[in-house]
Automatic annotation (TrEMBL):
InterPro entries listed in its UniProt record: Hexapep, LbH_gamma_CA-like, Transf_Hexapept/Carb_Anhydrase, Trimer_LpxA-like_sf
Lineage: superkingdom: Bacteria
Name of the featured protein: Gamma carbonic anhydrase family protein
Gene3D superfamilies found in the cross-reference section: Hexapeptide repeat proteins
Length: 166
């Protein structure tokens, strides 16, 4: 469901797939060919949330925050992740169940592993594999891994098209 909050309506490109069980509220913008999957909540009642193009917000994810939240283009946010007032660079993947807290920043072409906890204010450069609780960068991604990030985003654009017809 897409809801206004205090007179502010989410801005969602017409090509975006939004599951009927997702909730998108208030100060939110979502770019073309992105998707918001089942039971996800994107709650822009405190601060602005910007989601780029070709980005997928997978099932059960929560995006909210007391700081502006920015998620780039070609990003995959895995099932049941929490992004709270954080920034995620283009072409990155946030693993299932990962938590990004206020002020955290993930660089472009990065992977945050499943279940990782990125603490408030923690900043990671481009191209890193980030795992653990608290999260730490353990190595740089290979060129092959970086190509895989783009494939993940592309696959979800295709899958969303199929779901539009259900």
């Amino acid at each position: 469901m897409i809801r206004d909050f205090e007179g502010i309506k989410p801005e969602i490109h017409e090509s975006v797939y939004v599951s009927e069980s997702a909730e998108i509220i208030g100060k939110v913008s979502i770019g073309e060919n992105s998707s918001v999957w089942y039971t996800s909540v994107i709650r822009g009642d405190d601060e602005y949330i910007k989601i780029g193009k070709n980005t997928n917000i997978q099932d059960g994810t929560v995006i909210h925050g007391e700081l502006k939240t920015e998620i780039g283009d070609n990003v995959t946010i895995g099932h049941r992740a929490i992004v709270h007032g954080a920034k995620v660079g283009n072409n990155s993947l946030i693993g299932m169940g990962a938590i990004l807290l206020d002020g955290a920043e993930i660089g472009e072409f990065s992977i945050v592993g499943a279940g990782a906890l990125v603490t408030s204010g923690k900043k990671f450069p481009d191209g890193m594999l980030i795992i653990g609780s608290p999260a730490k960068a353990v190595r740089e991604l290979t060129d092959e891994e970086k190509k895989g990030l783009l494939k993940s985003a592309d696959m979800y654009v295709e899958t969303a098209e199929k779901h539009k017809n259900i």
